[in-house]
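Malate dehydrogenase (Platanthera guangdongensis), 332 aa
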Amino acid sequence: MAKDPVRVLVTGAAGQIGYALVPLIARGAMLGPDQPVILHMLDIVPAAESLNGVKMELVDAAFPLLKGVLATTDVVEACTGVNIAVMVGGFPRKEGMERKDVMSKNVSIYKSQASALEKHAATNCKVLVVANPANTNALILKEFAPSIPEKNITCLTRLDHNRALGQISERLNIHVSNLRNAIIWGNHSSTQYPDVSHATVTTQDGEKPVHELVADEGWLRGDFITTVQQRGAAIIKARKFSSALSAASSACDHIRDWVLGTPQGTWVSMGVYSDGSYDVPAGLIYSFPVTCVNGEWCIVQGLQIDEFSRKKLDATAEELTEEKALAYSCLA
């Protein structure tokens, strides 16, 4: 029997990430090759004409899984009945702007969109926040959508996770599919901690630890970390635009694994609501290693954290605590 369509909201759908993301969803990269979708696309009024152009292209592509497209500038219309919400739209930091200015703009946006999701989204709607500052935007959304379970509000650190896998695969000259269990801890910012101390590589002789095969602790604790942390800035310098293709692909990975489950023995990185695991302050949206089963994520427990990693986990938690305080001051 054919499946009922899933309604997927993409905010900021006329932007670069949105433009890269919606065809992936329509093709089945997010929810699987047999899951029909209805796309809800939201953008601001000045982007309405461009948004309509995206809708025309989706119609022209004749995707078999795409059962409908709604393109709107009305947040209530966009949020009504959605099962999955991918929050790409946000206010970008511009030259000369202070962090508080950017935070204030995004607090306003996410307060409004949270209220619409709270009142009009489907029961058990899953939310992924992509727009920066992603962790704190997700926290604000949680505050103003109290009926959405806290486990249903997440932010994107899968992009950083995939970047970490990409760097190791290039270093070892192996296919990325042979790598698993990297971790991104903390904030989707330059304080994030890309950690491969528990990661392994599938070889002809079985599973081997990444640190054993790389055999260069200086690189793993130095250039590897800074390259992943600063990859977004490097792409902006090269392209003159921020990451779009990789961000869209990672958003699909995040939702797919959340909904359909992570492979046995494999974890992924998701920004989720901290319960105090690994001595991370509860009440932050923080990136942890998680496994997913039956549409639910669970933080991987019991991993050994050495002194080097402890300092990194604490530093990014401290930044998130400061961001949280700044966001709440904007609310006041």
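The CA atoms of residues 216 and 287 lie 26 Å apart. The longest strand covers residues 285-293. ok done for today
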